[in-house]
Fold this sequence. Notes:
alpha+beta; five-stranded antiparallel sheet; four-stranded mixed sheet
Amino acid sequence: MLNRIVVYVLAATVLSAVTYFITRNAVINKAPGLVMSTIEARIVAGSGGWNACFHNQTYGPRTNAARRAKPDSIISSMAYDLSEGPVRIAGETWPRYWSISFYQQNSDNFFVMNDLEMASSAFGFILALDGQDTSAYSGVPIISPTEKGIMLVRRFAADATDMEGIIANQEALTCAPA
């Protein structure tokens, strides 16, 4: 009788451990990709397709929208798909504060640069997968670890009067297949 109880307890323990590790692995490995796919779909819907810029042009909190960590951070985004080849991102920085960030499919950030790190206010990047030839394109190559992901460009708006200049800055931003 005691051996039977030990076997049941041992089986229940093993089953619990296996369930825990399978669930943990699914959450850790799959959830970020699912979240990124949702974000990419929103950007694609707003911009009209992959590898195209999408701009927030509202200063401050937005009604019926996701809350932003900083309402004075005006964001341009792009959902990228490098399956057809490299993508070119070019434009000018914003004088108050500007940064560009790239996130791979599992939501890990793999590249960040801000205006203070730039040699000039004009910039050009070529986003590509490892092994894609970027030599024919002008711009600083950035190698994405995954075929799909997102880019975020942040600009600081001191107040609503900055929006006219920020919108002009956004409209000068190029996001397109190289």
